Amino acid sequence: MKNRMSRLQLLFCILTFIAILPCAAQDTKSYAHTLELRNSRMVPVENRAIEIYDVVTPRTEIGQRLFKIHEHPAFDSLLTPEAEQRILSEINLRCNKLDKDTLLTSDLIWVYRPYFDWLFNEDPHCRIEPMIPAKDVRETKRLKVPEFDVLCINDTLIVNQSLDPDYQTGDRILSVNDIPVSTFLEYTYPDRYDTPANIMRHYYFSNVVDTFRIKLERGGCIINTSTAGDTQSRVVLKLKQQQALKVQTFPDAKSACITIPSFYPNNSWLIKKLHNQIKKFKAIGITNVILDLRMNPGGNGDRFDELLSIFINRPSVKYLRKAKVKCSQKTIDLYDFLTEEMLGQTVELPDNEIVREFPLQSEMYIDGMRYYVLMSRDTGSIAASFCNILQFNDAASLVGEPLLHNALKYGETVQGKTLLPTLLKQTGISIVEYDEYTRAVDGVLMPDIAIPYIAQDYLSGGDAMLDKLLEIIESNPIN
User: Fold this and answer.
1) Is the dihedral of CA 90, 93, 98, 100 positive or negative?
2) Residues 343-387: pLDDT tens digits?
3) Which of 140, 274, 303, 454 has the most CB within a 10 Å radius?
4) How many domains does the chain have?
5) Is residue 2 part of a domain?
6) Is the pLDDT of residue 119 over 90?
7) pTM above 0.85, yes or no
8) What is the spatial distance between Cα 379 and Cα 233, in angstroms, rounded to a whole number?
9) What is the domain extent for residue 317?
């Protein structure tokens, strides 16, 4: 099944100089040379909480050609000479705007943004992230981050969940350490939900500091704050705990909302909790169940048939028409049918390697319920497939905003490689292209009930999308 790394897992992609291992496809001598070249270009980063380094890249090495991701099933065919030249022109325009002889990692992220966005638009799994080389990797464990996450709507960052009483849900973040939010957002991906540390990480390692000076707006007033934050591991854990299968009930609307933050390598506990909770709802007269997948990046498809059996009243469901894999050094050992002669080719997976249709377990189905699924552009991978299957089988109404382009199309990620001699790294590469049964339009899965994100609606600290859906449910004559 598909899998996708969450952005919380992407925080602090840390690498020591001696810990990087060459990809199998890289020539050892070439790798050693580029690694030595990168080490020779390292410069210390000043005024940071620990001793870290950056790498300078000469302007003359940028904008001549693009790095390629040959393992991906579609990138090579889509990146035509015309497309490559167009992207290179945009990169060179950005370089000229910077007007620097050498570029640091944050500069590379900004000038290569047109290419990163092109890759991401085709496959949302594909991200290029910066690494932070520390002199002593153990020191990174004590680095701290702000104790909240954010909702990003266009150029507006709003506190979503907070562990620190100085920061409240609905606060608008204006700047961090005197850097405007709009500047940070030029360097990062267009995620709906994120963390300040993840956003700042793309801007010159700005999260590696002792203190965060945060200017915010609350109730029309500007407030200057300062926080040391807490360690990343503790913040990530506590924020996840706030979301873990959270249950809310709304008796007036005969409705309940269950937050599903992820799917897991073992979904048995999740399935049991969902099944039991929905039966409890039915027993007390709640007939509208809202599944909140807005912050669910995917995860694992373990027991997916059993999970879907709760919601779909059919003997079986269709899943895939077909699937393709790019034969490469990374994939040839993963599939027995691939051969050396197929290297470089994108080939269809045989029937024994894909799931075209799967049976459901009728005893799991709970009748008499109406289901709604809240989704956002962050709903990805197997979570996107979950939404798609429910919609395709008329089992639930999808609510919110469209999913990202091709959220359903790719999956089965493998480890990416370091883009030597820089500090940039591919976090994961999809190796399989899927053709799911779907109602998606031009690769975009659309909601049945569209409720767009509008920044003003979230500044009061409420959940505007959920509130709007509850209004719609209450106004329904059949409710």
Assistant:
1) positive
2) 999 999 999 999 999 999 999 999 999 999 999 999 999 999 999
3) 274
4) 3
5) no
6) yes
7) yes
8) 23
9) 240-475
